[in-house]
Amino acid sequence: MTWYFQNNLVEELPTDIVGFVYCITNLNNGRKYIGKKLAKFSKTTYKMVTLKNGTKKKKRIKSLIDSDWREYYGSSVELNNDVALLGRDKFTREILHYCKSKAECSYIELREQMERRVLENADYYNGIIQVKIHKNHLKKL
């Protein structure tokens, strides 16, 4: 199953984004899930280096690796159970917004969830909304 953005197939994410907000729809019953996904994860590895004075020290190396966004179906257990039961072909995955920061992803995900009233509506798989954002973290939306 693939991702779509504005009815276009997404094979690669734009290089200038950090993540995206998405909607997954069950084609059998119309239930949806609103979530966010990061494009890359930070990975920390350690390497032993020898200093000029001969002592050894661990050096921390940070790198970015691609996330599992291509295969991802949300963090909802109920949604993932339905995907396993019904098959991936019974779901559509749509990218609603590309985001340039983690805070922007969190904010837009929350905004979409609140506008759609996902916790009040049985038409959504969402069972929890959890977010902590400071307005200083947001760039112009």
What features would you describe in this structure?
This protein has 141 residues and is α+β, with helices and mostly antiparallel strands. It has one domain: GIY-YIG endonuclease (3-Layer(aba) Sandwich). The chain contains 2 helices and 7 strands, in the order ββββββαβα. The longest helix has 15 residues, at 102-116. The protein is elongated and about 65 Å long. The protein starts with a strand and ends in a 25-residue tail after the last helix.
Summarize the structure in short.
By secondary structure, the protein is an alpha+beta fold.
What is the secondary structure topology, with strand pairs?
Elements (H helix, E strand, L loop, with lengths): L2 E3 L2 E3 L8 E8 L5 E7 L1 E11 L5 E11 L10 H10 L4 E9 L2 H15 L25
Parallel strand pairs: 1-7
Antiparallel strand pairs: 1-2, 3-4, 3-7, 5-6
Number of strands: 7
Question: What's the helical proportion of residues?
Answer: 10-25%
Instruction: Give me the number of helical elements.
Output: 2
Report the CATH superfamily.
Answer: GIY-YIG endonuclease
User: How would you classify the quaternary structure?
Assistant: single chain
When the domains are counted, the total is 1
